[in-house]
Amino acid sequence: MINVIWGSTKKPVSSEQLAEYFRAAGDAYDGELYVGYPIIAAPIGAFPIDALWISRERGLVIFSIVEGTTIEDYSLAQDESANRLETKLRSYQSLMHGRSLLATPQVITFAPAAQTAGQSVDGYPLCDLNNIHEAIEPLDWENPELFETVLSVIQSISTIRKGKRTRKITQPDSRGAKLKTLEASIANLDNVQGKAVIETVEGVQRIRGLAGSGKTIILALKAAYLHTQHPEWRIAVTFNTRSLKEQFRRLINTFVIEQSGEEPIWSNLQILNAWGAPGDEGRTGIYYQYTKAHGLAYTDFQTAKRKFGWDDAFAGACQEALLGDTDEKHLFDLILIDEAQDFDPAFFRMCHSMLSGKKRLVYAYDELQSLTDKGLPPPDELFGSHSDGSPKVQFNPSSPGQPQQDIILEKCYRNSRPVLATAHALGFGIYREPDQKTGTGLIQMFDQSKLWTDVGYSIVDGSLEDGANVTLARTADSSPQFLEEHSENDDLIQFLCFNDKSEQAEWLAQGIKNNLEQDELDPDDIIVINPDPLTTKSEVGLPRKRLYDMKISSHLAGVDVSPEIFFDKQNASVAFTGVFRAKGNEAGMVYIMNAQHCAASFGNLARVRNQLFTAITRSKAWVRVLGIGEPMKALIKEFEKVKNSDFQLKFQYPTEELRRTMNIINRDMTEHEKLATISSTESLNRLVSDVEAGRVLLDDLPSETIQRLRSLFSGSGENG
After folding, report:
1. pTM: predicted TM-score of the whole model, two decimal places
2. How far apart are CA 529 and CA 523, in angstroms?
3. Is residue 173 domain-resident?
4. pLDDT digit string (tens) for 378-399?
5. What sign results for the dihedral spanned by CA atoms 164, 168, 172, 173?
6. Both 217 and 255 in a single domain?
7. Lower Cβ count inside 10 Å, N or C end of the chain?
8. 27 confidence band (pLDDT: 50, 70, 90)
9. Is the pLDDT of residue 602 over 60?
10. What is the residue range of 553's domain?
11. Are β-strands 204-209 and 355-365 bridged in parallel, bridged antiparallel, or unpaired?
């Protein structure tokens, strides 16, 4: 069966008839049909192919499409399309044998509104729906083994791989050799990723997927594709983690050159921080441009933190700005948002108001990255309502020939099955010791149980129903086996407990030394993450000092280098980082230090488990989770349980009532709430002690207060 991927086309009616022909043919044909893609660099500018079919059996088939009944110079159009594509393909040595191209494109002119019978010229087939079968049937390909290579070239993925440095490998079984093979195995976008790149709706589009499902690359490809198609559009790409800026710029620049032969028009394709600040163009951001366009006062982080608190600083600044000048200023034609789970609805509404015309906005996020009970609100809530109460954004069911508004990426191409299952088990508390207050070890859970299957878990046993026992597992399809076959499970992920920070630092430094000197890993193959961003600067001092003594360079991302750079550009230094700056980045070997702080925490248990989850999922291959003392031993106990369960998740799905209780118990408290709770607890303990010692008599206490306490405690007991 053919997978149809819809790009931007100026010939929609005839293109839909071509797609419908292949849909109706079912399993008679195979491969990928791209409509309005690829775009090829040419001396006259970007040259779009009307439609391209890539098939193992038939090879590469270009469809030169005629919209209407008039057929003019169709042979010239065929020659131009074939020559453009062939020139592109010839630049890839893997598709050549001497001077011969092993994937020569064939061309068919498809004119469904014209009567084409008898009009074909030898070598220039012309057809409509009545005789398209006759044009396709003679086609054959002698090199079907090149299907994946051709697909990689057409998708531009081969360009990314070609752009990476050449690894110096001397040992065929070293970690460096394994990582090289691993990176080469991710050769193509899968069907869903291809749709996410090329299919663009006239409105809002949502892309959901796990960490490592390719969201950042998809958004970069999408921005480049649409910029090449519509260079006059004002496009903005934005995100939360500043270190993503350089990554986006590199990817987009590569893709645009691949498709148009020229660098992007950066004035029309802006890569912007979400917040931004006054100054040069490198400092500007979405929020700053909004306040400037509306003549509003700009609020910096320090001011916003004092007004709204650390956690709500940006959300508060956005909400305050939206209450200002309400006239919409249309600054962009398209906005793409990465890491959308990190933003408040106010930011989405701000972005939506800045868009012209069709209000084109694409947002991508990790359904499980924040591990909140509900994740982002649905689109109709996220973007707000019109004055009449109707939602500004609604998602419609997908229909043939129309791009999908809601795309779910279920495959994870970064984390192996053992690594990802461990991250989720610890993040949700699947195997944690039961809490006395809730009776379960679970820390948090989705209200929408189907999210588990949406992101690639299968039900091995039981059901995802309230109160039911269930066993979930990653499948070979959603977690490709090559991600774990290169190493034993005990090498993929390890948890280690140390007596003190000095012992932890020594082991960590020695591990990095071995990686660089024996394992053939490069410095940018390694990330060291301290989960608590507030203590990172002080905590990484000891292992960095030990590395310095070993003559190994390291840097603290965002402190020793620009906030917009994560890895050292000269690749001579190992990156240390807090967990938030690590988001959006990845490495072959990930070390997590001080993980004991993620075992338990008063007032923010969900948060510290989320930090551990995020840190673990930065790894493309190996993870070392390091910690100190009894809390670390508790984490190791949880890890042993998930490992002994063959990295399956076995738990009782909590009822709605229990989920509500879990969310209250494990909710994120502000510092003020923590202090108030501690103060109240101390006061209550003193009162109980005074009553027990006879210093205070119950009869001396107000009867109304005693009755209210009895009622509260009785109700608490009834609710378990």
Report:
1. 0.81
2. 14
3. no
4. 899 999 999 899 999 999 887 7
5. negative
6. yes
7. C
8. very high
9. no
10. 417-662
11. parallel
